[in-house]
Amino acid sequence: YNSAKMAPSPLITLLVLLGVAFVAHASDPDILTDFVVPPGANASVLDGAFFTYTGLIADNSANPAKFTVSKATAAEFPALLGQSVSYAALVFGPGTVNPPHVHPRASELLYVVQGPLMVGLVDETKNELYAQTLQTGDMFVFPKGMVHFQFNGGEHMARAFSAFGSASPGTVSLPVTLFESGIPDAILEKSLHVDEATVHALEHDLAPPAPAPAPDSPPAPKNGAASLVPACFSLLVGFAAALLL
Predict the structure, then answer these.
(1) What backbone torsions phi and psi does residue 42 show, to the nearest 5 degrees?
(2) Do 186 and 166 have their domain in common?
(3) pLDDT tens string for the chain (245 positions)?
(4) Domain enclosing residue 75, as ranges
(5) Is 148 annotated as ligand-binding?
(6) What is d(CA 216, CA 86) in angstroms, rounded to the nearest whole number?
(7) Looking at the domain assignment, is residue 61 inside a domain?
(8) Does 203 appear as a known binding residue?
């Protein structure tokens, strides 16, 4: 028996330590207290209200023709700091979509309260789409950092709740990142293989809505850019996958 042959090499030891460190940093850091008191708050006067959040209560005034999301992350609910968990309520009007996006700091577990709801994610290593139409009561997991979307193609409202493995999962919307971040048009044209007019139309369509005109002002001319968004949907997903390779 030669004990020297069984001793791990310094390189193996280093790789193991690096692997442990990677896992340790893969989620929110552990805290040394039961919970975190936000800066400026007085821990001696905290009560049950600090651990309560009512921001997910349904807003009946919301526009049913839009996709809306109500979040409960550390930004909205400070009691979540250090707890490695957050939540979101998703409401989809008929024909609405939560555009392709990623959560860079957490996986997402979605539960459909009212279906059907189409969901999908892209495996960037193979540029392959995994899509599924979920019914009421179904669940779907979106691994951390993977491009994904949800779409209500039905004629009725769809609702879902999402749980995240981080108090601050982050959201990076691909359309907004590509067309509202100031990337030069020439870069987008070459990357997406589209012309300048298409890029400008998409930028116009994604821009915040203009203020309503005064009563005596003529209505602004309509722009048909919205019709270009479905045509470029696959381009966005493909470009995002290329960025992640």
Answers:
(1) -100, 110
(2) no
(3) 454 445 555 554 444 454 444 434 446 888 878 899 888 888 888 999 999 999 887 665 556 778 999 999 999 999 999 999 999 999 999 999 999 999 999 999 999 999 999 999 999 899 999 999 999 999 999 999 999 999 999 999 999 999 999 999 999 999 989 988 899 999 999 998 989 999 899 888 887 666 656 566 555 544 444 444 444 445 554 544 444 44
(4) 52-170
(5) yes
(6) 47
(7) yes
(8) no
156 is in an annotated binding site: no
Please check whether residues 129 and 98 belong to one and the same domain: yes
Residue 57 maps to a domain:
yes
The reply, when asked if residue 101 is annotated as ligand binding, is yes
Decide: helix, strand or coil at residue 103. Answer: coil
Distance (Å, whole) CA 195 – CA 14:
50
Residue 158's CATH number: 2.60.120.10
Domain count, the chain: 2
Residues contacting residue 126 through CB under 8 Å, at least 6 positions apart: none
- Residue 193 marked in a binding site: no
**Do 204 and 120 belong together in one domain?**
no
